[in-house]
Amino acid sequence: MLISLKHRCKPACLVLAVTLLSMANIGCSSHQGHAAAKTGESATSDAATISIQSPLASRGKLIFDQTPKYASAYVGNKLSCNDCHIQSGTADYAAPMIHLAGLFPMFNKRAGHVISLENRIQECFSRSEAGRPLPVESDEMHALVAYIDSLSRGGGKGKPYKGRGLVKLPSLEGDATAGKQVYVSQCASCHGTDGAGVPPVLPALWGPDSYNDGAGMNNPAKMAAFVIHNMPQNHPGTLTAQQAYDVSAFIHAMPRPQFNQAYKNY
Ligand code: HEC
Ligand code: HEC
Predict the structure, then answer these.
(1) Which residue of 122, 126, 211, 237 sits 20 to 30 Å from the alpha carbon of 136, by its own alpha carbon?
(2) What ligand has the least distance to the C-alpha of 83?
(3) CA 199 / ligand 1 centre spacing (Å)
């Protein structure tokens, strides 16, 4: 399955993965491991093939995959972009970066006005990364934008990618007590009974190394939509919508870093 590929790729072969899992109809969707991805043959598809040949874009991918290491001054926890935007931002319904650049500038509900891609990345740093906004004119910002641009080639201007965002779920009420059972039996083996994970390999779900309470994931419905499609990482697609809401309610009853109001414009 895709998962064995994910495990294999986590530390080592991400460059290969991004090349092969090319946003297209292969690899990241959810079907059996693609032969080309397994053997390392080159793969082609209808969609544009990702090319991250430019040194700046490659640097951006490093920052995306290992954010606390390569953008340490701006990160306050131990999460990388890649922990949520799975497979270096190429997995469907894990809020992929594919064909995203052409959608900006776009109206942002949280900000209440139109924002640039750089502004959106700044929000990620002050919220999901529990840190501070990355300056627009920094090397790290230029690199991240170059990487996202490289995943956006071939995308129509203003036309969203089919796997954009998260899956749509009905709106349900989560039960944290039931969610604890789901967590203990299906999540704790990787994320720990204390939710701290084993960063950078297994990310934290709550506590000081997790995202703060201003983050997009700090929303039980959003987390449920992420989890139902992407978790448990070794058996995705096995939870019911109710279980996904329950486990999200449990996780959101636990402590996490506070959003720094000094960055409320980000
Ligand atoms: C804790 C999980 C998490 C982390 C870490 C994280 N993000 Fe996100 N990100 C999200 C969620 C959730 C969304 C919203 C998805 C939705 O609502 O469709 C999002 C949305 C985005 C978007 C807008 C996507 C779209 O389709 O409009 C961008 C761009 C983005 N993130 C970039 C980043 C970058 C760059 C980093 C690292 C610096 C990062 N994110 C770290 C969870 C995370
Ligand atoms: C086999 C190990 C494993 C299991 C089991 C697992 N996860 Fe994960 N989880 C991961 C890994 C690894 C990531 C980072 C993304 C990736 O590489 O797939 C992740 C990422 C996440 C994230 C986004 C990053 C963050 O830290 O906020 C959430 C939320 C999450 N998992 C929730 C769950 C929930 C809920 C369960 C149980 C239903 C679960 N996971 C079970 C390994 C696992």
Answers:
(1) 211
(2) 2
(3) 19
